[in-house]
Amino acid sequence: MLRVAVPNKGSLSEAASAMLSEAGYRQRRDNRELVMVDPDNDIEFFFLRPRDIAVYVGQGTLDVGITGRDLLLDAQVEAEELLPLGFAASTFRFAGPIGDFSVVEELEGKRLATSYDGLLRDYLAERGIKAKVVRLDGAVESSVRLGVADAIADVVETGNTLKAAGMEIFGEPILKSEAVLIRRTGEGGAANGTAKEIDVLIRRLQGVLVARQYVLMDYDIRKELVEQAAGLTPGLESPTVSPLRDSDWVAVRSMVPKKETNRIMDELYDLGARAILVSSIHACRI
User: Fold this and answer.
1) Between vectors from CA 219 to CA 215 and to CA 221, what angle results, nearest 5°?
2) Looking at the predicted structure, is the pLDDT value of residue 186 above 80?
3) Under CATH, which number does the domain 2-87+177-211 receive?
4) Domain 90-176 homologous superfamily, CATH
5) Which of 44, 143, 144, 266 is the most exposed place for a label (fewest CB within 10 A)?
C-alpha cells in the first residue's frame, strides 16, 4: 500500500486535498482525521504538518508527500521533487527597513532572521556572504523592530505584511516556491515495491494539471481554411479533423490553453469558423 503524506493545515492543505480528489482518491471529511485509507486505490494518506512532510519522506517512513519546494529544500533531507503541482505559489526573498539595503552583498556581517535557516544558509554559502542567521518560528517581520536582526529572509506572497512593518523587498528572489510532490532519493527511493503506484499517482496528478490548464474546443470551418485554423489551435499533437455532410466543411477538435480561450475563439470567428464550442476537461492522460 502506497503511503502518502498530505498537509494537514495551512495554504497547502485544502488545495492538496482538492487535487487528490480530482485525481480520483478519497480524502478525509473530518479535519481531525490524521490517517485515512483508500482501499479502492490501495493507498494510505497521512495528514501531517507541511514542515514535517519532507522529513518523513526523506527518512523513508512514507513513500511520497506533498509539501512546498521551500520546505523541502529547507529540511535538507534525502528527498527530491517529482512534480510541481501549480498551487501555493510564493517567493522567498530578502527584506529590510526601507532604504537600508539595495543588494544582497550589503548583508555581509549582518544579522538575518528567518524561519528557513537551512535554505538561507545554503544560499549565503553559495555566494560567499558571511552573515549571522537567526532562526525564528514565526513573525519574522517583527524581528528587525525588536532588535533581533538587521534584515529578514521570508516567504512573500503579496508583500502587504512587510509594508505594514515598514520594510521593503530588495535583491533577487532567493527561491520561487510552489507545492510539489516529493519522494526519497538514493537507496530505498521506491521503498516497499511502490514504484508502479508512484507512477500511477504522478500520471493522475499530471492529468489534473492538464485538465485545469486546457479546454476542448470544437468548431466548423471550410476545408481550405483548416491549415490556418490549425495554426491557432495546434493541440498537443495535432487537431482532430472530421468530415461533415457538407463536403466543403470539416469539424475540428483541439485542446487549447484555458486562459487563451476567448482570444482564440475571436480569431477563429474572424477566420471564418462557426459553431465554436468549448468544453471542460474533467480528467485525462497525456
Assistant:
1) 145
2) no
3) 3.40.190.10
4) Periplasmic binding protein-like II (3.40.190.10)
5) 266
